[in-house]
Fold Histone deacetylase 6.
Amino acid sequence: MGPGINKRFAENKTEYGNAMAKVTVYGTGTNTELEQSSPIVTRRGAQKAKIQTRGMVRKVESRKPSAALLEAKKKAREKLNNSPKRSSGETITIRDIYQSMMDSIQTIRGATGIMYDDRMAEHRCLWDPNFPECPERYTRVVERCRELKLIDRCVQLSPREATVDEILTKHTQELYDLLKSTSQNEDEEQMEELCTKYDAIFIHPTTFQLSVLAVGSTIELIDNIVSNKVQNGMAIIRPPGHHALKSEYNGYCFFNNVAIAAQHALDNRGLNRILLVDWDIHHGQASQRMFYNDPRVLYFSIHRYDHGTFWPNLRESDFDWVGEGDGKGYNINVPLNKTGMTNADYLAIFQQILMPVAIEFQPELVIVSAGYDGTYGCPEVCLI
Ligand SMILES: [Zn+2]
């Protein structure tokens, strides 16, 4: 409001949500009739004369609820009276979002499960020994866990193969059959030719068996956690899965381990809220797509984006892809548009975005797609 307006106050109507609220805006004019004609009265003089000073009047007025607040209260009352639950006499229970944290004080620390199988080091690219996705991605993690004596502290879980039906919950029959047909195929040239049809894929004679083993082991780990045999756990597996699309192998991935395991938990374990955190440096576009309409799985990814120039170079990896239909609001991308990110940056994302979301969502299970290519020293895509 400009300084030339010579009114004591003006009224503006402002839309706030669906309700129209009246907002009083004080003007800047000072030369009003009221002020000119008002006599100066001291507080003591006012008390004697049993009248109120302007200050006293304002104090009383400020205690009155504003027109906007009265209007909002009226709307809320109407909404509550019209709600079907209220009219049917049903009790509405609102759970305190911090209750799980309070309950966890009583939780006794349980065992951590670990799942790995040395056969997973057999999968490798026969025609390119320098292919970035290599057996060391499995062996170094297991070795490091051994060095730190972490494996001794965990409950060893037995890997298992996934069933066809389990894999078909997230992939097409054609995709499954094609990979199965490559099993034990030693024809290097034929395999190389097949892989040229896909982005960043190699197939080894063991790839099918190990892909099935990776999916089954992830499901088995989830089952052990959901049934409270272990409190949490880690599956060290290859080939990876978060780029494996419904009907296409992609980015070193054949079957989407985590997505299939999450679907298993929904379908067979009665879970309704799963938080899927993906901190691999690449966006897990396949995991995103597989639950894009599903509010039961909240997909949260932190990934290098570089304004769309970093692989997988997809517009859908940006922050404004938030889910659709019932799943709208249940897909959260945190794209990083510069390198040189530090622990503090990641902690800020965790504390300022992930944790508030997790507290609201109250997941029954948290699954982490824990790719290590965002860490310092990764020869492929070091962020530093
Ligand atoms: Zn990656």
Remarks:
- The first strand starts at residue 9 and ends at 16.
